[in-house]
Amino acid sequence: MNHAQVRALLDEKYRHYDQPGFITLDPISIPHQFAQRADVEISGLFAALLAWGRRPTIISKCRELLLRMDNAPHQFILQHHDEDLKRLLGFCHRTFCDTDLLYFVHWLRWYYTRHDTLEDAFLVGNTQKERLENFHTLFFSLDDAPQRTRKHVATPARGSACKRVNMYLRWMVRPDAHGVDFGLWQRLSPADLICPCDVHVERVARRLGLLERKQVDWLAAEDLTAHLRTFDPQDPVKYDFALFGLGVEGEM
């Protein structure tokens, strides 16, 4: 396919998949349970960072986690007592276990006593690479940060494509007329976002000639996004819907 044909296909599939029906079977359904901004931010962060494996399992584990927080994540983060933390013990999704969860809760409490929104944590830096690196540094800036937990928050400094963090930013930043992404954060621009690069997106992007780099790392995510910006410079990551949908539905 030539450039115009690829764009036409992606535009068509973006319109097809960026619909409310997409929400139910995707981890983004987790933050869609909430109306208050802080609840959306916190539940969305957990849903995005736990998004590995089968989607039904991810959604189930996130619901379990939120139930342990009385389905009031912001209130739990700010008002829990030590005794309340016992209900988090035993939680585990793949290699993310209660040690990691307890640090997440500890950091979020520290953070939300100082800031009203998680958006502030992603604003330091001139490029998206710098912003994600600085977020990672901030997240693990507390003295008792477990070394094992670092693998659960990706950073470009380690060469990671940062798929889950980029997906979270898509959810929070991108205004969406169809109501899938939230567009809660307005100090970051959709034009600066980097496309989440999971196995489905990678496979379809390669078949369409949008990704040539063999290793799926930060440079690959940047290269893919650069191609997508030629189709829509203001909102390149909207094509995540198209690439992911084509891949997960087996169309390519």
Automatic annotation (TrEMBL):
Coiled coil: none annotated. It comes from the Bacteria. Signal peptide: none annotated. InterPro entries: CHP02757, DNA_glycosylase. One of its GO terms (biological process) is DNA repair. GO terms for molecular function: catalytic activity. This is TIGR02757 family protein. It comes from Hymenobacter perfusus.
